[in-house]
Design goal:
Shape: globular
Helix content: 25-40%
Strand content: 15-25%
CATH class: Alpha Beta
Number of strands: 4
Largest sheet: 4 strands, antiparallel
Number of domains: 1
Order of helices and strands: EHHEHHEHHEHH
CATH topology: Alpha-Beta Plaits
Bound molecules: inosine-5'-diphosphate, magnesium ion
Number of helices: 8
Length: 161
């Protein structure tokens, strides 16, 4: 990466949110914060995806329910890049339980129960690297252009005389 202040994180819009038509609203929040989408796909997670993704939760009471839920239908898998994106994107999501989440967070605004809490975000640099590799090949990730809304206009916007 060009600048070490920039991190990458894995974000998923879960099947409940895709099903309810919340994809655009959720992506929009991250884009407006300035985070760059450097990878994105709609995919139906396989059992293998789910088991790898949630390996840390094996044996917990909610594990089977979680695996069933995440394999219910398509998710939007994303890699976001930005300054402190791991921590900030999780703050934007709110706490795991939407009932405890702060007003204005994604989980407060769009969810009611922790079993169906609309988004996932990596919780550390190590988790991000591990989770990105589960869902993306290296060639599926792209370089973010300069973080500047006028980049393409300045570069291509010269009218031919
Ligand atoms: P996180 O998504 O906020 O990082 P984790 O503890 O990593 O939360 O749990 C992964 C997912 O498992 C949560 O997003 C939630 O959907 C589900 N989950 C976590 N704890 C519980 C629980 O106590 N009951 C039911 N589902 C849970
Ligand atoms: Mg987690």
């Amino acid at each position: 990466m060009a600048d070490e202040r920039f991190e990458r994180t894995f974000v998923a819009i879960k099947p409940d949110a895709v099903n309810r038509g919340l994809v655009g609203d959720i992506i929009s929040r991250f884009e407006k914060r300035g985070f760059k989408i450097i990878g994105m796909k709609l995919l139906h997670p396989t059992l293998e995806h789910a088991q790898k993704h949630y390996a840390e939760h094996v044996g917990k009471p909610f594990y089977n329910n979680l695996i069933n839920f995440i394999t219910e239908g398509p998710i939007v898998a994303m890699v976001l890049e930005g300054v402190n994106v791991i921590d900030i994107s999780r703050k934007m999501m709110g706490t795991t339980d939407p009932q405890q989440a702060a007003p204005g967070t994604i989980r407060f605004d769009y969810a009611q129960i922790k079993e169906c809490n609309v988004v996932h975000g990596s919780d550390s640099v190590e988790s991000a690297e591990r989770e990105i590799a589960i869902y993306f090949k290296p060639e599926e990730l792209f370089d973010a252009k300069e973080n500047d809304e006028d980049y393409f206009i300045r570069k291509y916007g010269h009218v031919e005389e």
